[in-house]
Amino acid sequence: MATATSMMERVTPNVFTTTRLRGCNPSFVTTGDGVVVIDTPQLPTRAVAMREEAERHGPIRYLINTENHVDHIFGNWWFRGAGEVVNHQALFDIFMDPKAALDPFTYALEAIPTDDPDGASILPERDDYYAALPRGTVVFTGDLMLKVGEHTFHCLWTPGHTPGQLAVHVPEERVVFTGDTIFSGVQTWLMTSNVDQWLEALERIRQLDVDHVVPGHGPVVTLDYLGVQRAVLLRWKAAVADAVAKGWSREETIRRVRFDDEFGPVDVGQAYMMDHIQNQNAASLWDKLTATGYAKGR
User: What is the CATH number of the domain that holds 199?
Assistant: First the structure.
C-alpha cells in the first residue's frame, strides 16, 4: 500500500503503480540497474511527483508507453531527459498528434482546473510542449525484449484498443502491465478500437504465467479478470450487431444500446463522460459493423 508520503501503491517489492489518479495507472519497476517507467501521469504535478519517487530508487533507464491516448503519454513532457522512451511503431506514428481532429493537448487541459489546479503553473505553452515532448528513442515493430539489471521486460504488441497497444510482461515479478487492454471494474472505452484484435490480445495475455495484472484503469487484478473484460467486449459487439440486424439506424442504436448500469462507473474524475462513452462505443461499433457487413451476415 502507499505510504503517507507516496502517491504509489506497492504491488510487489519492486513494482509500483497508482490506481487513484485521473488518467491511466502509471507505474514503475525498480531493478538493480535503475528504474523502468510504464506510462506517465496525465496530471502535471503528479508526473513530477512520480518522477521524483521513481528516481529515489535509481536512474530511470526506460520509459515505456503502452498506447497513444493522452492519459498515458501526456506526462512524458515532465520526464524529459529520464532514460530512453520506448514505443511501438504504430504508437509512435500517432503519438500526441497535433493535427488530430481533437487536439490531445487541448483535451488534456480539461483535467487541470478540476483535478490538478497547481499543475497550471508548470504547464508549458502548446508549442513549447510539442517542441520538447519525448516521443520515442527506441521504436520497434512486433515485440521487443529489454534487460535491465536482473529484470526482463517483454514488450508485447497487443493491438486492439489502439493500433500500437503494448503489454509489458516482467516475469521476475510475475506481473504484466496491460494498458487499456484491461479496464478493471470501470467502463471500457471502445471508440476507434478493433474488438476482434482486442479479443486476440486478451488471449495472448492469458497465456502468461503471472500473479498480478496491472490494468490501464481500475484496481490491480489477476488473470481471472481477463474473462470479465472479454465478456464486456462480446456484450457490446453482440448488442450492436443485433441492432444492425434489426435495421436500427445509427441514431437509434446510440439511443438504445447502453451499458452504463452494468459495467461499472467511469474511472476516476470522469463520471461526467458516461453518456459520451456509451454514445461513442455504440456509434463506433455501428459504423464498423455496417461497413463490413458483419452483423447483416449473422
Answer: 3.60.15.10
| In a domain? residue 3 | no
Q: Is the predicted pLDDT of residue 123 greater than 50, yes or no?
A: yes
**Domain boundary residue among 194, 225, 256?**
225
Which structural domain, as residue segments, surrounds residue 210? Answer: 9-225
- Are residues 191 and 246 part of one domain? no
CA gap 166, 69 in Å, rounded: 12
String of DSSP letters for the chain: ---TT-S-EEEETTEEE--SSSS---EEEEETTEEEEES--SSHHHHHHHHHHHHTTS-EEEEE-S-SSHHHHGGGGGGTTSSEEEEEHHHHTTTT-TTSSS-HHHHHHTHHHHH-GGGGGGPPPHHHHHHH----SEEESS-EEEEETTEEEEEEE--SSSTT-EEEEEGGGTEEEEEEEEE-SS----TT--HHHHHHHHHHHHTS--SEEEEEESS-B-TTHHHHHHHHHHHHHHHHHHHHHTT--HHHHHHH---TTTS----TT-GGGHHHHHHHHHHHHHHHHHHHTTGGG-
Predicted TM-score (pTM) of the model is 0.94
- Give the pLDDT confidence of 135-151 residue by residue, as tens digits: 999 999 999 999 999 99
CA distances to 10, 46, 107, 203, 285 from 279, rounded to whole Å, are: 36, 30, 18, 27, 10
Residues 162 and 253 in one domain: no
pLDDT at position 97, please?
Answer: 87
Average confidence (pLDDT) over 160-171: 98
